[in-house]
Design a protein that fits this description.
With about 325 residues, the protein is α/β, with parallel strands linked by helices. The chain has a domain at about 10-100 and about 175-185 and about 205-330: Rossmann fold (3-Layer(aba) Sandwich). It has 11 helices and 14 strands. The strands form 3 sheets. Strands 6-7-8-3-9-10-14-13 form an 8-stranded mixed sheet, with helices on both faces. The two termini are about 25 Å apart.
Amino acid sequence: MTMTKAENRVPLRVVNLECTFPTRGGTVQAVSGISFEVRPGEVLALVGESGCGKSTTGKAIMQLPPPTSGSVEFEGTDLTSVTGSSLRDIRRRLQIIFQDPISALNPRRKIKDIIAEGLVIAGVPKEERQKRVEVAMRQVGLDPANGERRPREFSGGQCQRIAIARAIVVNPTMLICDEPVASLDVSIQAQILNLLEETRRTYDLSMLFISHDLAVVNSISDRVAVMYLGRIVEIGDADSVYRHAAHPYTNILLDSAPTVGDVVRPPSGLELKGEVPSPLNPPSGCRFRTRCPRATAICAEQEPVLQEVRTEHQVACHHPVVDPDLPNNERPHV
């Protein structure tokens, strides 16, 4: 397939990513052949229940650890093929913010040294490091005068600001945010989300934002990808997914947050059945079929593939949900 110039500029492209982990009981299929891209300057939200593989995806992109198979192309380089100093150089442009800000920070170090760590590794002179650390701290709403203090002296929200400062001080082009507000109070969540949005605009960043909560990512995402048991089941423009969700699982997720931004959704009427299957032995065909109220025989026999249902909106489902308010020419044609 010949790529256009626009496609070549895509900062992150993930193709057929698989992550498996051997255990005593068998092999855990955490991520099973997913593909997506993050476009220049956009935020792609990766959403799903705990255990669906979204955080594993984020860490695999960073090669922490590397995926079992597939490719992770960042700014034209396949990260699965580079190691050592070459990978460290790339990671300065591709930074990750972890879910638990307190455990992600070394409790013995001063925060000015924590933030400066990437600059030290890059060999930035001390005087310049100090200036850049102060700028980064101000950018995230921290007083540089507090640089001598240690993480235990800060709240969870402040620690997340420190983690964001550590990420942006090396001037990355892309951030992976792995549940960055999940452990914070609701009032603090809004502050951190606003900070991340402001940081994106200031630094012209692309962002992969991982979350279990569709309501949380509404304010920050341009596109949304929904994961279930290691696979992407729906992906599209955020407004299209929120207003016209086509996969039963996405509809059920949205039912838990009927009002998202300015979108007020009537209940889908769909209900989950049973429990989440084990990733040690996922169901045949559609992995959601054992819990799906719309499943039929074909769902067990054939694995659904992503197909376009609207412009910039794809779903992997044999029986997608049709929004009755959509005109006929905009209805799913899977």
